[in-house]
Write a structure and sequence with these properties.
Radius of gyration: 24 Å
CATH architecture of the largest domain: 2-Layer Sandwich
CATH topology of the largest domain: Alpha-Beta Plaits
Low-confidence stretches: 232-259
Order of helices and strands: HHHEHHEEEEEEHHE
Structural class: alpha+beta
Strand order of the largest sheet: 3-2-7-1-8
CATH class of the largest domain: Alpha Beta
Distance between the termini: 45 Å
Helix content: 40-55%
Shape: globular
Mean pLDDT: 77
Number of domains: 2
CATH superfamily of the largest domain: Protein of unknown function DUF881
């Protein structure tokens, strides 16, 4: 047993070569996320170029009645899908990590690093509150949110639509400013964040903008991996179907639920 343990220790030491393997794996994960983010940027630039080509070709056939009808249908749906620019009065919320404290600070010794950073759930709470307040369009950093947008944590950074962002996180919403401010202030999750921010020094700022321009969403709008399923359970028992005549509709789109 001692010989086997010694062999395992020797193999681990030879593999690590004096380094921390766990830290190395964390570094590799961050590097991988950065590489994927660069790849997304390149693909989005390629998509934008191809879209311009398609638009140019389509406009060249503007005399075709069927094309004109199709273009009108596209324009009607584009605003609802987030594919058109939105401008107007806005509310802007900024969330930031707490500044570093002295090592001998009693509060700093009583909490963990996880307690002084902005999490995905904090950003999501603000986004959801703005939707409830009647936001017409929302942008997180430089990314327009649509129905399929998903906010995810990667360490102490935020992953949104293939791009990585570091705090401070700026959330801008165009719409009825008074209603949106009231919705943010009354939201329980945002209120909890504000209370904790007062204790540990997290950044929180909300302001009204006379005018803001939120650009159109330019990323992919089709799902790559999701598939539809038949309305039945795994056991084969039919699932109850909602009565569409009485089932209330969702008034505003939102990103993925908080995690």
């Amino acid at each position: 047993m001692f010989a086997l343990a010694g062999l395992m220790f020797a193999a681990a030491a030879n593999t690590s070569q004096g380094t921390d393997l766990r830290a190395q794996r964390a570094t590799e994960l961050r590097d991988l996320v950065r590489q994927k983010s660069d790849r997304v940027n390149a693909l989005e630039a390629d998509v934008a170029g191809r879209r311009q080509t398609v638009d140019a070709l389509t406009e060249g056939r503007s005399g075709d009645p069927s094309v004109a009808t199709a273009r009108q249908q596209v324009l009607t749906l584009s605003s609802e899908a987030g594919l058109t620019e939105v401008a107007g009065r806005a509310v802007q919320v900024t969330l930031d990590d707490a500044p570093a404290r002295e090592p001998d600070d009693p509060l700093w010794q009583a909490i963990s690093p996880n307690d002084v950073i902005v999490h995905q759930a904090d950003v999501q709470a603000v986004v959801n509150a703005l939707w409830r307040g009647g936001a017409e369009a929302i942008q997180v950093m430089d990314q327009r949110l649509i129905n399929t947008s998903s906010l995810q944590c990667v360490g102490n950074t935020l992953l949104l639509q293939g791009r990585v962002y570091s705090p401070p996180y700026v959330i801008t919403a165009v719409g009825p400013a008074k209603r949106m401010r009231a919705a943010v202030r009354s939201d329980p999750s945002v209120a909890s964040y504000r209370d904790w921010a007062d204790v540990v020094g997290l950044g929180y700022d909300i302001r009204r903008l006379d005018r803001a321009v939120i650009p159109a969403y330019t990323g992919p709008i089709t799902m790559s991996y999701a598939t539809t399923t038949s309305p039945s359970s795994a056991s084969g028992v039919p699932m109850p179907q909602p009565d569409v005549s009485t089932d209330p509709a969702v008034a505003a789109p939102s990103a993925q639920p908080s995690q």
